[in-house]
Amino acid sequence: MDKILYHGTFLTMDESRTEPEAVLIRDGMIGGTGTLEEMKALAPDGALWDMEGHTVLPGFIDGHSHLSAVAYQLLIANLKPSPLGACDSVEDVVQVLKTFLETHSLKPGQWLLGMGYDNSVFPEGVHPTKEDLDRVSTEIPVAATHVSGHLCVVNTKGLELLGYTGDHFTVPEGGVVEPTGLL
């Protein structure tokens, strides 16, 4: 069924930056924009939805899942450097993870996760190591994800659970497992 949205701020992302009075939604897609009367003419049986002054944006497709990553970060330890966090060194990463572990109840088998560390701002410029994260815990797996989201460091327990111990293990094509715990 067609829907006509009206009485809102409609940001169409159109280069002309027009803000129509109404938007027609047909089969889950924008079917038209213009005045309310124009949209009623295009869809005489369309359901009218009063947006009560709210802002409406077109649907965004985030193939890289940035929106869900932002939500996910709210549930784990914040390892970002200042001013967005408190991790301006490897030692800060260790302390933030320790504090998170002390203040949050993990279920059996659950990993302690943190995200956002940026070694490029650390005085020494190096990534944390499995030994650094072993100072947080040797009993539970710990993972610290880089700000890029493209690499992480895990502690010894994490390496064990992932099967990355000993001399012979399989790494997914294109992947790298460093002896320091950097994945």
Give descriptors for this structure.
183 residues, alpha/beta, Urease, subunit C, domain 1, Diaminopimelate Epimerase, Chain A, domain 1, 4-stranded mixed beta sheet, 5 helices, 21% strand, elongated
In short:
With 183 residues, this protein is of the alpha/beta class. 22% of the residues lie in helices and 21% in strands. Strands 4-3-1-5 form a 4-stranded mixed sheet, with helices on one face.
Q: If you had to describe this structure to a student in words, what would you say it looks like?
A:
The protein is of the alpha/beta class and 183 residues long. The protein has five helices and ten strands. Strand 8, helix 4 and strand 9 form a beta-alpha-beta unit. The longest helix is centred in the middle third of the chain and has 14 residues.
Tally of contiguous helical segments = 5
Structural class, by secondary structure, is alpha/beta
In N-to-C order, the SSE pattern is: EEEEHEEHEHEHEEH
CATH topology category name of the largest domain: Diaminopimelate Epimerase, Chain A, domain 1
CATH class of the largest domain: Alpha Beta
Number of domains: 2
The rough form would be described as: elongated
Order of strands side by side in the largest beta sheet?
4-3-1-5
Largest sheet: 4 strands, mixed
Low-confidence stretches: none
Mean pLDDT reading: 92
Report the strand count.
10
Proportion of strand residues? 15-25%
- Radius of gyration in whole Å, from Cα? 24 Å
